[in-house]
Specification:
The chain has helices at about 10-25, 40-60, 70-75, 85-95, 105-115, 135-145, 160-165, 175-180, 195-205, 225-235, 250-255, 260-270, 285-290, 315-320, 335-350, and strands at about 60-65, 80, 100, 120, 150-155, 170, 185-190, 210-215, 240-245, 260, 275-280, 300. It is α/β, with parallel strands linked by helices and about 350 residues long. The chain is globular. The chain binds 1,3-dihydroxyacetonephosphate (13P) and iron/sulfur cluster. 1,3-dihydroxyacetonephosphate binds next to helix 4.
Amino acid sequence: MVMPAHPKTYSEAEIEDEAKRLLARLMHVECEASRSWNIEACREIAPLTLEINDLKKEKGAVVLAHSYVEPEIVYGVADFAGDSYMLSLKAKQAAAERIVFSGVVFMAETAKILSPEAEVVVPDRGSGCSLADSLTGAQLRELKSRYPDAAVVCYINSTADVKAECDVCVTSSNVYKIVASLPQKRILFVPDRLMAENIRVEMRKRGIDKEILSSDGTCIVHDRFDPNIVVDARRKYPGLKVVSHPECTIDITGQSDFVGSTGAMMEYVKTTEAPYFMMLTECGLLERLEVESPEKNFISGCKLCPYMKMNSLEKIRDVLVSPRQEQIIELDEELRLKALGSIERMFEIAESK
Ligand code: 13P
Ligand code: SF4
């Protein structure tokens, strides 16, 4: 671990104030996936959050955090927390010298594509994603050669190499709108096989005639929910609302009251009256909702993403102090520009009326 040359020290009063600030948010986290937060636990991390927030100012850095990372990152040090789409917009607009991306590597790569002048760093280079890691640019080129008439649509959970081969990128917040808007009947959607199934169902529901082809990736978090837990939970909790992500199987999404991006799922829970909610997604999202909607009742069901959980306050502090070479995202300029084309097309269609 790289330690700062001169670790900062804070007075007892500064630590106490910071611990109270953290506790006001973290006290609501009840999910068993998180540690339990009391004033002692907040005092323990307060020197680190204080140091990170000072380092951000010194280094001209912003911290972007996906909602799936630990709540002490989201509420302790993140400048913006949200879903892939929101964080891409923030990366595009960031006028920062440095972006620390607390999420997974494909998200940081997307930030670098959109903000090439910034130094974009990741707390842990091992924070991959089973979807992004399931398909290479070369494999996609081979698939494209088999379906030359197809529009090539890539889910944002893909590498820069894959994005460079696509006509348009999508996130879970705009996938149906973008696929529906394309003139081609045949769509090659990569790399999420389960999201492709959800697109097929949605296009059929909308009466839109599309042929959706896909590669074989899945999310190792969302492909594991057992449809029986929904049946059991509905029996036990009348009035329950089941909320899931389009990376889930159609057996799960077909039984859900709401399906959407992590940002849309949060919005749905915040604006819906129901006695109970079941969140079939990564536990970080449930923790955010426990903090931001403490009056709602949640029943367990979430799962952990091992890649998102590679982020920690210590690693964020260390990468701010002095990033190791492998923590800095670097992209070939020609590849970056090709990948940028597919992301800009996404913004254009997603933001259109
Ligand atoms: P969102 O864009 O909905 O946040 O999804 C990202 C992700 O990795 C879900 O597993
Ligand atoms: Fe990738 Fe799934 Fe983790 Fe999201 S939850 S980063 S899709 S492995």
